[in-house]
Amino acid sequence: MEPGDNYQLEFRFTQNQVEDFARLTGDSNPLHLDPDYASRTLFKKPIIHGVLGASIFSKIMGTLFPGEGTIYLSQQLEFKRPMYVDTTYKALVQVNDTNPDKHTATLTTRVLDNATDKLVIDGEALVMNRDRI
Amino acid sequence: MEPGDNYQLEFRFTQNQVEDFARLTGDSNPLHLDPDYASRTLFKKPIIHGVLGASIFSKIMGTLFPGEGTIYLSQQLEFKRPMYVDTTYKALVQVNDTNPDKHTATLTTRVLDNATDKLVIDGEALVMNRDRI
Question: Which residues are CB-neighbours of A4 under 8 A, at least 6 positions away?
């Protein structure tokens, strides 16, 4: 991995996945699950849990870039816009800096709306991978 | 909510939940799933996905403190120590600051090992709740 290297992945979630995430984690906030409740909020319809949206970074860094064996050291997340089900988003992970001695890298981690390119999640991660960094 | 208010919750995850999380998010990093692979790492056995561990904050803030209707604006996470299945952890969420005009609060979000009180996840969240902040 070198500074500037990057990885992009399009993804989407379904309402079934949101319900599975709510069951798994216990976060049954009706903002994510109840269309009537959500219709009375500024979002108008249920939004995806922020942590579920951000899990795309865990998938990318743990299985694709840098991949297997990656250890998460930190993650900063700013939830700039709501994420909705059945909507295509694009995750962008870009290397800012590497420390080959420590096998660590800082990466910019972003989610954009795929249709509008608007920034949905912004953030930065620090990861370690002894074989790949 | 006032500065200093806080909420504590003991929790634990099972390997079945880790497997469900891997399927749901696509993060099939063998560090979380494969005992043979994990035995050759510094952790010696599979560790819980950091994002799954951090989901306890989403549960607490979305359903308990401040609860229903909470909107996540940001979350910073430092993964200080590995989390293991079938181990009891304690989540601590404490109010640092509130802005009643904007209905926002910054909260310290931590996970400790329940037996040793060692810090496992450190971080800070910014949330909005129009009815409760």
Answer: A94, A95
B-proximal residues of A, 94-133, CB under 8 Å: none
- Backbone φ, ψ for residue A56 (5° rounding): -60, -30
**Of B104, B42, B27, B68, nearest in space to A41 by CA:** B68
Q: What are phi and psi of B66, to 5 degrees?
A: -75, -20
pLDDT tens sequence across B14-37: 999 999 999 999 999 999 999 999
Interface test with B, best of A25, A40, A89 (most B CBs within 10 A): A25
Inter-chain contact A29–B63, Cβ cutoff 8 Å? Answer: yes
From chain B, the residues in CB contact with A131 under 8 A are none
Q: Are strands B89-99 and A119-128 parallel, antiparallel or unpaired?
A: unpaired
In order of A24, A43, B4, the CA distances from B33 in angstroms are 17, 36, 38
Query: pTM to 2 decimals?
Result: 0.97
Burial (CB count within 10 angstroms: exposed 0-12, middle 13-18, buried 19+), residue B32 = buried
CATH code: domain A6-128 is 3.10.129.10
Partners of B91 in the β-ladder: B9, B111
Looking at residue A14, its pLDDT comes to 98
**Neighbour count for residue B97 (Cβ, 10 Å):** 11
Give the residue extent of every domain in chain B: 6-128
- Burial class from Cβ neighbours inside 10 Å (0-12, 13-18, 19+) for residue A80 reads middle
ipTM of predicted assembly, 2 dp:
0.96
Taking the C-alpha atoms of residue A34 and residue A21, their distance in angstroms, rounded to an integer, is 14
| Per-residue pLDDT tens over the stretch A10-31 | 999 999 999 999 999 999 999 9
SS3 A43: coil
